[in-house]
Amino acid sequence: MIIQNLTELNRFRKELEHLYYKHTLILNSIAEGVCGIDQHQNIVFWNPAAERMTGYKAEEVIGKTSHAIIHHTKKDGTPYSFGECPIDRAIHDGKTYHICEDIFWKKDGTYFPVSYTVTPILENGAVVGGVLTFTDITEKQKTEEFIRTSEKLSVAGQLAAGIAHEIRNPLTAIKGFIQLLQSELDEKKPYLHIIESEIQRIELILGELLVLAKPQATKFTKSDIGVLLQHVTTLLETQGILHNIQIITKTDPSLPLIECDENGLKQVFINFLKNAMEAMKNGGHIFIEAQKKDEHSVLIRFIDEGCGIPKEHLEKIGNPFFTTKEKGTGLGMMISKKIIEDHGGTMSIMSEVNKGTTIEVILPIRVSASPVLHTSSSSHLHA
Ligand SMILES: Nc1ncnc2c1ncn2[C@@H]1O[C@H](COP(=O)(O)OP(=O)(O)O)[C@@H](O)[C@H]1O
Ligand SMILES: [Mg+2]
């Protein structure tokens, strides 16, 4: 009888162990943070995902209140007033609370955005504890923000296209009339020339704006990099002058035509110039140099006198969303790198803090003729 009971007991123990093993496996492998608390809000369970998100190991938090560990204050440092904290309330009134957006504190003193659910555990109608499940929503927030900016940019692009067209039509009329008048107003000719050349400049800028505003299909043609650089510079020159920045372009006259997607490269060069200008809060010079490197490739350099890039940031540049600017998107360098790689080219960054940054681009003259270059996908970063 005793022996039979013992066997039974062993079977029960095995089943219980198996059940425990299964549950632990599930809780350990899910991506959500899971925190079990008792009725006094002391932590009794803390899964590996919670460890990863907060930096606290289970043994550091078991027995402490969830409040003290992750939810002691709001984002701005102010404490929760009585009855305001959803974890308190779930334990108090036995209801489930879901919070879409809040913050939890980490061991290192920083916080991360979370969405979380607190579910009370009831036994015979009384609350004996609760389960807090939470998800880090940093990436979700970034994606939402990215979509918002893309939308904003595309609206700005559409507007720019409309405005450009509207200015272009009256400009054409004015230009025509000036040409008509030119023969009659001989003595005023110098003024007319000025007006005409100014109008030409506006036309050029509007043309550039239209190209940028419209999403363009990638098209490879033989192009003059010097002219391309000139157009891009025209677009940004005025903004440069406003910030006391002078753009100086030096193009080798023997520069060969290269096979490229003009609009793609323009986007790259605009990104580099904008970054250079944004790095030069106190003004200065931006030098653009373009020359033939060898039989197969050309070399283009963007040299600025800006704030420079610290070593620890260098390797992160080009990662999506890496930005040091309050209103930056961290997408410019990533997109530029991709476009250069699509040309079979390479990009390298050399920088010295407080001195300036040089971006060096090597592009093959003929894309198809140098298939080997296509494999050099990673950009070389130098300090
Ligand atoms: N010429 C430069 N001088 C200094 N920092 C630069 C330069 N170019 C890029 N960076 C750094 O690289 C980051 C990423 O640039 P980018 O991808 O264009 O995004 P964003 O300009 O929106 O920040 C910038 O935030 C900046 O810290
Ligand atoms: Mg940028």
UniProtKB/TrEMBL annotation:
Keyword check for Transferase: yes
EC number: 2.7.13.3
InterPro entries: HATPase_C_sf, HATPase_dom, His_kinase_dom, HisK_dim/P_dom, HisK_dim/P_sf, PAC, PAS, PAS-assoc_C
Highest taxon of the lineage: Bacteria
Catalysed transformations (reactions): ATP + protein L-histidine = ADP + protein N-phospho-L-histidine
Domain annotation Histidine kinase: ranges: 162-367
Residue span, PAC domain: 98-149
PROSITE patterns: HIS_KIN, PAC, PAS
The keyword ATP-binding is assigned to this record: yes
Xref: Pfam families: HATPase_c (PF02518), HisKA (PF00512), PAS (PF00989)
One annotated GO biological process: regulation of DNA-templated transcription
GO molecular function, one term: ATP binding
Record key words, sorted: ATP-binding, Kinase, Nucleotide-binding, Phosphoprotein, Sporulation, Transferase, Two-component regulatory system
Residue ranges constituting the PAS domain according to the UniProt record: 26-65
Protein name: histidine kinase
Organism of provenance: Saccharococcus thermophilus
